[in-house]
Specification:
heterodimer; A: 95 residues; mainly beta; SH3 type barrels; 5 strands; 9% helix; B: 214 residues; mainly alpha; Nitrile Hydratase, Chain A; two-stranded parallel sheet; 4 strands; 43% helix; globular
Chain lengths: 95, 214
């Protein structure tokens, strides 16, 4: 099993600034940004492997993370963006 | 260099044509599709019956499926609750074969929250519920702009969302598919399900439109 970073609902998290060349399902506009864990969606297989039909016991927790439009773009104070991100792509906000 | 196939002869031979193509020249994409399909069949990766089954499944998918399910939810609170809590199981209970459907999330619009769906990384779309995606949904312009400037994009779709309403954009970055449960328009509550399902448009279930009263 790979290390599984776990976060709790309501916790603030930062999207890691990673630039891997493989199947990294994190949109560029979210890299380095801070959001709040809205929901825990349970374990998923490592998408970086399953994308290439590789089986592994490498499980990661998937989180739905809420970002404010104001934080991402400096715009509307009311609008929000939700994205589903694996725990391996997230870290503590100061990390 | 290999010299066994210098292609310098006059190019006068005719290419094989399919009688059903009415003699039109194949587009590049069609050549790729035929090459890939024939290779997959020849190598036994897929079989012809599997291919036909999938084509039938794809052809039978349309936004009418999603509309009928949303209309039912508007009329039946117990069903709606179950649908929002556990979409796939609830849809299967209606007799739908959801075995090939990816996990689904249905997000409900509220007076103070308007939901919109996008897939910025590729073009994930709840095909089972809504059929094949419209071209604009897959366009770079929609995918880039709806996360950056959702209000402006919605205005271009003819939807002016009040400043007090939160626009919540769902970027389907993982293996979950998202669709919107629009609000039942005032005055439509008493319509029968069969009528309601005709006013629930595809766009209203993506979040770029509202149900249309006749």
């Amino acid at each position: 099993m790979a290390e599984t970073q776990e976060f709790s609902i309501g916790q603030m998290v930062r999207v890691k600034r990673l630039w891997p060349t493989d199947h990294h399902r994190v949109p560029f506009y979210l890299k380095g940004k801070i959001g709040q864990v809205a929901t825990c969606l349970g374990p998923v297989e490592n998408p970086e492997l399953t994308a290439y039909f590789k089986k592994s016991s490498d499980q990661h927790i998937l989180y739905r993370v809420r970002f404010t439009h104001a934080h991402l773009w400096g715009g509307s104070q009311t609008d929000e963006i939700y994205a589903d991100l694996a725990g391996k792509w997230l870290c503590e906000p100061e990390g | 260099m290999a010299d066994h196939h210098d292609h310098t002869h006059a190019h006068t031979h005719t290419h094989a044509t399919d009688p059903d193509l009415d003699g039109h020249t194949l587009l590049e994409g069609e050549v790729w599709e035929a090459a890939l399909r024939e290779l997959l069949l020849e190598k036994g990766v897929i079989t012809t019956p599997e291919l036909n089954d999938q084509m039938n499944r794809t052809a039978s998918q349309s936004a009418a499926v999603g509309a009928s399910i949303i209309a039912r939810a508007w009329k039946d609170q117990k069903f709606k609750k179950a649908l929002l809590a556990n979409p796939k199981v609830t849809i299967a209970d209606l007799g739908h074969d959801v075995s090939t459907m990816p996990d689904l999330v249905i997000v409900e619009n509220r007076v103070d929250v308007h939901n919109v769906v996008v897939c910025t990384l590729c073009s994930c779309y709840p095909r089972y519920m809504l059929g094949p995606p419209p071209e604009w949904y897959r366009s770079a312009a929609y995918r880039a702009r709806v996360v950056r400037d959702p209000r402006e994009v919605l205005i271009e779709f003819g939807l002016n969302i009040s400043a007090e309403t939160t626009i919540r954009v769902y970027d389907s970055t993982a293996d979950l598919r998202y669709m919107v449960m629009p609000l039942c328009p005032p005055g439509a509550e008493d319509m029968p399900v069969t009528h309601l399902q005709t006013i629930i448009t595809r766009d209203s279930m993506i979040g770029v439109g509202l149900p249309k009263l006749p």
